[in-house]
Design goal:
By secondary structure, the chain is of the alpha+beta class. Helix 1 packs parallel to helix 2, helix 2 packs parallel to helix 3 and helix 3 packs parallel to helix 4. The radius of gyration is 15 Å and the shape is globular. It contains five helices and nine strands; from the N terminus they run αβαβαβαβββββαβ. A hairpin with a 3-residue loop joins strand 6 and strand 7.
Length: 178
Amino acid sequence: MLSEKMKSVYAADIFRLAAEQKNEVFYNSSAEHAAIVHQALASYATRYIDIFSSNMCTEVSNNAGYCDAMKKFLDSDITHSIRIILTDYTPDFSRTDIARLFAKYPLQVSVKSYDGNVMYKGAPAHFTVSDDRAFRLETDIKERMAFGNFNSPEQAVGLRTVFDKIFISPLAKSVPLC
């Protein structure tokens, strides 16, 4: 567990990079770091957020800071969109705070399940990408090891291309939000 001081230093650095849209690689190595990065991605997204994840049933996705940032993103413009692909979807997802929030925005949020993986260097990976410039790529799902950048269009567009291919695939099945 990270000390509060270490979390606040890390959070300040991440939010500064996001606000400045700095082209600088950052790393995260814990669930606490992951939650901070996701909050920053949601807080500074201006058009879309695409999420490729396991089930979004953990504290990383179901904390007040992240839910608030997602709500602000969706409320700020009707054209803002969130698309999600879950690789380990379970009905428990519909009982999470984040799913209940998303259910209020059926025209802006789409969730699909996918029985497959995206591989990075031979291992399954998860990622979030926004606005064709910002991303977080989780390279060790179990240990929450990841890297990202808030202004790397080439990498972000590459991840979005992968996401788009899976999202429109007949193997990706729509998940109802209720």
